[in-house]
Amino acid sequence: RAVKATVENAAARVAEKLAEVERPAIPGTPGSVTPKVAEPTRPADPAPPKPDQAGPETRTPTSVPTDASQTDVGQQGRFLTTSQGARLRDSDHSLKAGERGPTLLQDHHLREKITHFDHERIPERVVHARGAGAHGTFIGYGNARSVTRAGFLAKDAETPVFVRFSTVLGSRGSADTVRDTRGFATKFYTDEGTFDLVGNNIPVFFIQDGIKFPDVIHAGKPHPDREIPQAQSAHDTFWDFVSLHTEAQHHTIWNMSDRGIPRSYRTMEGFGVHTFRCVNAAGETSLVKFHWKPVLGVHSLTWEEAQLLAGTDPDFHRRDLADAIESGAYPQWELGVQVFPDTDDEMFGDIDLLDPTKLVPEELAPVQPIGLLTLTHNPTNYFAETEQVAFHVGNLVPGIDVTNDPLLQARLFSYVDTQLTRLGGPNFSQIPINRPHAPVNDMLRDGFHQQAVHGGVAPYKPNSLDGGCPFFAGGARAGAFVDVPARVAEAVKVRANPASYDDHYSQARQFWLSMSPVEQEHIVAAYTFELAKCFEQAVKERQLLALANIDPDLCAQVATGLGLPAPDPSEPLLDVEPSPALSQLGAVWPTDGRVIGIVVDPQGDLGGIGEVAAAISDAGMVPLVVAPHGGKLPDGTTVQRTFAATRSVEFDAVVLAGSPVPAPDALVVRDGKAGEDGVAALDPRVVLLLQECFRHAKAIGAWGDGVAALELAGVADAPGVLTGEDPTTVFAELHAALGAHRVWERFGTVLA
Ligand code: HDE
C-alpha cells in the first residue's frame, strides 16, 4: 500500500507539472489557428535556364563510344515519359478518388516511380566500395612486342580505357583520404577483347594465398558488434590479424608510409602486384610485373592534412580527379614492365616471383615504359559507369596469361562470383560500361536482364543447324587466346607454401631502410597513431615484436610513443640493400593541376593579383582567390573561397596578396603597422591557414605588405617562405618550389 501511495503521489506531481506547460493546440481542434496562406500544392513553373546552362540533351548516348543502337540511349525526346515511353502530363500528384480521397491502386505511374526508386541501390562492392572513375586512351610505344603479342601494345595503337580508383576498406560514402591501400583498376577495350589490369597503388599484398582474403578483410572492416571504425585500419582486429600473419608486415609498412595517404589519384603509382606470364608472336614466354608510373610523380598528403580533409572535403580525391580532367590537366601514367626470364623455378635471384608479398627492386630489374595512359573524360553518370563497371583479372588478351601465384588463382574465381550478386545476374558484360569493343559472339544465353536478342537455334558446338556458326579461331595466328602451355610440376596435393614464402621481414626491412628521414618519421608516427587506437595490450606487444624484426630502431621509436618496452627481435635481422626507387623524395615533377590559394584583403592593395592568377593558370595550375566574403573584389576579381568556407588543405601552396588581412572590428594592421592599441593581429582564420600551410611544408609566397602578415602569423623567414616586392618573381620561386611537392627541409622543425 505504501508503494502504491508513493506512485500515486508522484503521478499527481507529474500531472501538475504537465498542466503548467504551454502546448500548441492540435490543428483542427478548438483553439487551433488555421494558417492564412495554404501550403502550395502545385509546383512552381521551372525558372528559365541561365544563359550558361545548356538545356538537357534530347539524346544522351553513353559516354563509352560504342556502336550505339537506340537501346544504348538513356534519354530521348523532349517529353517526360513512363519507362514504356508514354508521355506524362503530371508527375507530382498521385491519382486519388477526389482531392482529399485515398490514392488509387490503379496509378501505374505512381507505382512505377516508387517501385523503381525502392530498388535504386545495389549492393556495394564488398571491398573497394568507394571509388572514382574516368575514361581515357592508352597508346602503345611498340617496344613490348618482343615480350608480348598483345595488339594494344603495338606502336601507336590507341585503345579506349576506363579506370576506377578506390579505397579498400570503407563503404561507398566513406572519406577519400583515409589511410588505406588504393585500387587502380584499368579496363582496356582492345580489338582482341577486353583486358583488365586490376591493381593497387602498393606493389605487394597482405597475404600469400587467396584463401585468407576473407580473413584479412574481416579483420580490416569495422567490428561486427558496433560497426566501427569506418574505413580505418587503426583498430584491434586489423593489428591482431597482421601481427599474427606476419607475411602482412611488408604491405602494412607501405600502408603506414606516406603511400597510404596519396595527395591525389593522379599522383599514385599503380602495380599489377602478381607476376604475369607473357608470350610473344614466336611463342616465347617471359615473366612480367606491370607498373603504372604517374607523370606527375608520387606525392602524398601529410597525416594531418588527410585527417582534416576527411572532415572538410570527404570527396577530395574524387573531386580532384574530376576537376583536373574538366580543366584539361589530363592525368597521365606510363605503363611499364619488369621482365624476368621464365625459368622453371620462377625465381629472380632469391626473390620468388610467385610470392605476392615480394617485389623486385627497380635497381635490379628496371621498369621499362611500354605505353602512355591519358585520362580525358569524366563519366556522364556515376552509377551507370563507375558503380557498374566490373573488372576481372581473368579478362586477358592473347599475349598475356596468368601464373600460379596462389593469390592470383583465387582472384580468378572471385570477381565474377561477386559480380553475379552485385550486378544482379550473369549478363553484366552487356551493361554499356562493361561491353567489349571487340565483336562478341558467345553461346551464353538467357539469364536475368538479358539485353541481346540472339538469333539461330543452335547455341552449342559443334552444330550443323546454324551452319556450324560461330567458328573457332584456328590458333594464335587467327587471333585466338591460346593458354600458354606452362609446365605444371608433378606434385602431390597439399595445403602448404614453398619454403621461400617463409621470409616475412626482409622486404619490409628494405622498405624501411630505403626511406628518407622525413619518410621514416611519418612511418613511426603512423604506427604509433594506429597502435595507440588499439585496446588490447597483447595486440600492441605482438605488433611491436614484428616491428623489432623489421628494424629495432623503428620498434624503439614506436614503443616509446606507446609507453611500452621495445622487445628484442625474435628473428635474425637480415642484411638487405636499400632500394632508392622506393622513396618519394628527391626529384622535381610537373605541377599541372595543383591548387594555389591567393589570400587577399579586399580593402588592401590588390596589385599583382591578376598577373599572378594568370601566371598560375598559364602554368596549368588552378588559382583560387580567398577573401573574407564572397562576391567580387573592388577590382572586379571574383572571390572563389571565403575564410569561413575553406581550409589550408585545399591548397598546394598559398600566396598573400598585397596587404595583411584584418580581423573584423578589432585589432587590425595595415601597411605593416600595428593597430590602435599597439597589438597587431590577423584574422584568426588566416593565421590558422598560414600556420597549417607552414606545418605541412607547403610553399608560401607574399609580396608588398603581405610580408608583414607572415610575420604576424609567425611563419616568416623559413625555407620555402618566399617574399619580395615583385609578385611575378615571388610566384616564379613558388612554382619552382612546388616541383619538389613540399619544402621537405621544413619538416625537421615542426611536427607533420
Ligand atoms: Fe580484389 N576484389 N581481391 N584485389 N580488387 C574486388 O571484385 C579479391 C586483390 C582489386 O574498381 C572484388 O568486383 C580476392 C589484389 C581492385 O571495381 C572482389 C583477392 C589486388 C578492386 C575481390 C583480392 C586487388 C578489387 C570486390 C585475394 C591488387 C576494385 C568487388 C585472392 C592487385 C575493382 C569486385 C573496381 C575488387 C576479390 C586481392 C585489387 C570481392 C578474393 C591482390 C582494384 O571480387
> What is the CA–CA distance across the termini?
69 Å
How many DSSP helices? 17
CATH-assigned fold name of the largest domain: Catalase HpII,  Chain A, domain 1
How much β-strand is present in the residues? 5-15%
> CATH homologous superfamily of the largest domain - what is it?
Catalase core domain
Task: Give a structural overview.
With 752 residues, this protein is α/β, with parallel strands linked by helices. It has 17 helices and 18 strands. The chain has helices at 2-20, 108-118, 213-220, 236-244, 249-256, 303-312, 316-326, 382-387, 406-422, 506-514, 517-532, 537-550, 552-562, 609-618, 684-695, 706-713, 727-738; strands spanning 131-140, 158-167, 182-190, 193-200, 270-271, 276-279, 285-294, 332-341, 347-348, 351-352, 368-377, 400-401, 595-599, 622-627, 641-642, 653-656, 699-703, 721-724. Strands 1, 2, 3, 4, 5, 6, 7, 8, 11 and 12 form a ten-stranded antiparallel β-sheet that branches. β16 (653-656), α15 (684-695) and β17 form a beta-alpha-beta unit. The structure holds CIS-heme D hydroxychlorin gamma-spirolactone 17R, 18S (HDE). CIS-heme D hydroxychlorin gamma-spirolactone 17R, 18S binds next to β2, β3, β4 and α9. CIS-heme D hydroxychlorin gamma-spirolactone 17R, 18S is lined by residues 125-128, 131, 164, 166, 183, 185, 198-200, 205, 210, 213, 273, 389-391, 407, 410-411, 414-415, 418-419.
